[in-house]
Amino acid sequence: MHPALAAAKPAETFFEGFEERIFDGPEGPVFYRIKGDGPPLVLLHGYPQTSAMWHRVAPTLAETYQVICPDLRGYGRSHKPPTVDDHATYSKRAMAGDVMALMASLGHTRFLIGSHDRGGRVAHRLAADHPEKVIAWSVLDIAPTREMYRDADSSFAHAYWHWFWLTLDAPFPETLIGADSDFYVIKKCGAMGNNSMDHFAAQALEEYLTCFRDPAAIHGACEDYRAAATIDIAHDDAETGKVTVPLLALWGADGVIEAHFDCLALWRERVEQVDGHTLPGGHYLAEQSPDDVLAAWQLFFAQAMKDEG
């Protein structure tokens, strides 16, 4: 057992009352957790994690909403499709397609989205491609992909080295990560969590490490980043207008986004209606500052449902 996992404290409760299900999607199985009977709210996780990252906020949200927490394709217990030359099988449009199919299977024609990191990029594509389906969406600690690449400087590249290294041709990053995937995940999560692992519950950390030991997950995650640097930007460039669905952007006061970008200004280049602010913490806000995330989301989603009528 990795020392960081041995030292991690278990959460007193972990997705209590949630069901774990597999959706047989049109392109492959999608694992998800679900609880609640209210308006639908899908939560989309980041890298190198799984839907387990929502364990500190999902139970409270499920008191008001039906909360659906899938593992994105390439991650966790969801499908990991073969690579294609243009990385289209790991584009955010393809990932969004899995979410659309899952929500349709549950009978939801319109839904809310909460998201973090890579999941926020999937949420962006959902809101851009399917505005008739998305009531409102929120992202944690990201700015839009294309604009982050555009405005990146050397200091950002050092902080977010993985953005560039993971895009190198297979199997270079896959081979190095696979040599000791536990070391890699702990190092990656620790560095982006302000060099502390204290906010990761033992159950969640064990799930992250276990799932990322799968060579297919390592490759799928690399493909996610390769797609982000290529076909995802092509999809962004093909847009003819701004996203019309309201966005709440939240980011860590001590994180890389705050240090290197004007988060709201970049989102306002892409989205008509944007609000947002910093929260205490670094990158992993749903695990570092769950009460702050909940307070912001409960206000935002309640107003969105009021506007929805």
TrEMBL record:
Gene3D superfamilies: alpha/beta hydrolase. Residues 39-285 form the AB hydrolase-1 domain. This is Haloacetate dehalogenase. It comes from Yoonia litorea.
